[in-house]
Amino acid sequence: MTLFLNLVFRNRLAAMGAVVITAILLLALLTPILPMHDPDVTATADRFKRPFSDGHILGTDHLGRDLLSRLLHGTRLSLAVGIAAALIAAATGATIGIVAGYFGGRIDNVIMRVVDMLMAFPYILLALAIVAALGPGLMNALIAVAAVNVPFFARNIRGITVGLAGREFIEAATLAGMGHTKIILTELLPNVLPVIVIAMSTTVGWMILETAGLSFLGLGSQPPQADLGSMLGEARSAMISHPHTSVVPGIMIFLIVMSINLLGDGVRDALDPRLRSGALSRPRATTLVDRKGPLPAPTNDLLSIRDLETQFHVGARTYKAVGGVSLAVKPGECLGVIGESGSGKSVTALSVMGLVASPPGVITSGAVYFQGEDLIGAAYETLRKKRGDRVAYIFQDPLSTLHPLYRVGHQLAEAIQSHQKVPNHKARARAIQLLKDVRIPNADSRIDDYPHEMSGGMRQRVGIAMALANDPDVIIADEPTTALDVTVQAQILSLLNDLRRDRGLAIIFITHDFGVIAQLCDRVAVMYAGRIVEEGPTQAVLDAPAHPYTKHLIACVPELGQGRRVLATIPGLPPMVDDLPLGCAFAPRCYKAQDKCREREIQLLGTKPRAVRCLFPEEPV
Ligand code: ADP
Ligand code: MG
After folding, report:
1. Ligand 1: residue whose CA is nearest its atom 11
2. What is the pLDDT of residues 300-314, one digit of tens each?
């Protein structure tokens, strides 16, 4: 809630709107107890008194009634009617929209066609027709204004609901045996509520105007009762001779509608999750860098990560996701990075190209050298040119990295053309070649498929093709085969292997599966709680794991044809990176841990290329 208010008030105009409308609301609430003239008492002797005359601060109208009193009572009435109309329209419209969107099919069709029919009438004409049928009066004006706004809400909410109704969490709720009412109330409603509030906050001003419009025409509040619209209507004949009678309610309508709209915009920005992560606290184009102290020296590797520290600053907490990681790859080399979920592998990978979202991510120390150039301190334009061109990524979930509405050929061509100036037909030919390279059968026709027309394995190949589009020097693959079945995984691994042989590609391969590492990687680095705890050539590490954690990880891999064996598991859970223990982070789960392990930081020691961060390693390194 405080976060929400903070977000709203960060927008100056919204804050101004909030102050004005709060003041007006307070005045409206206090009106009955304020010492004022009766708004409806006429005094023909005092007709058309100018503002600031005795006893009448804002003057009087054509019947000698006190304008200030009428204004405040009128405001009260207009606000009440406008807000009530907005609430009724929102509640009715949202119910209709949710029912239509959730049940779909014929119900949806019938409901939406009725809504469409209502929408086909011009707004004000429809309102006039309703009032004409019901008879003039404030209550009927309220009903009319609410009714003409129902289709707007219904259409909006139906659209959102249709999008949500097919989602997995609704299916899960259905599978769990929940009834329709419960699903609508507990699964759908919380998701559409922000949209309802947004739609309401941006339309309530408009509804106050519409009510005023009906009253202006004499169809809303009836004399002597004042609302802002009827005050304007009565002042119409004296507009030239006594302008103050129309200026006073006019200014009030302006203030109300303006402040509500400004506040509404602010509320919409703060509530809309897309805007919240986009427009208001827009993630920077590159990760925030806040390094102190001297930079580590560059090495002569193709890509080297040196003492990298990446943290997340969330409120008062600091999550040390990556705490001093050094890794390096040479051309044609494949480095495996392994560790349990949450050990900082992805954050390390994303830090290389400044792709960690900031806020909350901050790179607090270290450097990443690509061909001798530090990428961490590089300007956005430098990074942008290298992203996807020299250093490319493959992510775990190909369905979420491909755009669902574009054909894969289009997306591949786009990847090529964002770094190279090539005409469309050449980009297409290259895209087909790339699909062939990643062994997609019938590449010539597959290129015009949409992502949803492909299987998971094929989509992942498209992801790899996209990473290869500009013939990069380094590919960082973050669990690219985790979502795939074993046979497809084997094909993709051998594909990557061929590519690095043929093209001299350097690969950083992130996984949590030692079996995959054994197939593909020359060297392996084991990560735990944001640090490297062991590294070395794959075979050496597999043959003689030195860190107890590595040993456990290897023991977790099942082996075919080895007879029945109880698979090992690692007791306990990885630590929270916002509260790391002093000394070895693995100590609480380690069968060998002693007091010494918990006293101070433990260095990564060993003879190159082997190293281990353990005081009591399983094997000397
Ligand atoms: P993995 O090794 O599974 O790829 P990650 O690199 O994604 O792990 O995450 C490393 C740590 O960083 C985790 O403990 C995670 O909780 C933390 N983390 C990641 N993103 C954020 C974030 N936006 N805010 C706070 N902590 C985060
Ligand atoms: Mg990850």
Report:
1. 321
2. 889 999 999 999 887
Angle at 307 between CA 303 and CA 313, to 5 degrees: 115
Residue holding tokens 């120390």? Answer: 365
| Total residue length of the chain | 621
Other CB atoms within 10 A of residue 539 CB: 12
Mean pLDDT across 247-267: 90
Write the residue with the smallest CA distance to atom 10 of ligand 1.
Answer: 344
**pLDDT, tens digit (0-9, with 9 covering 90-100), for 265-289:** 888 777 765 555 444 456 678 888 8
At 543, the amino acid letter reads D
Assign domain 76-276 to a CATH class: mainly alpha
Q: Which atom of ligand 1 is nearest to the CA of 574?
A: 14
- Which ligand 1 atom sits closest to the C-alpha of 510? 4
Q: How far is the CA of 538 from the centre of ligand 2 (A)?
A: 21
Residue spans of alpha helices (H) in 185-227? 189-216
Q: Among 3.40.50.300, 3.90.550.10, 3.40.50.620, 3.40.1500.10, name the CATH number for the domain at 303-537.
A: 3.40.50.300
Model confidence band, residue 509 (pLDDT cutoffs 50, 70, 90): very high
Q: How far apart are CA 599 and CA 584, in angstroms?
A: 8
d(CA 168, CA 163): 11
Q: Where are the domains of the chain?
A: 76-276, 303-537
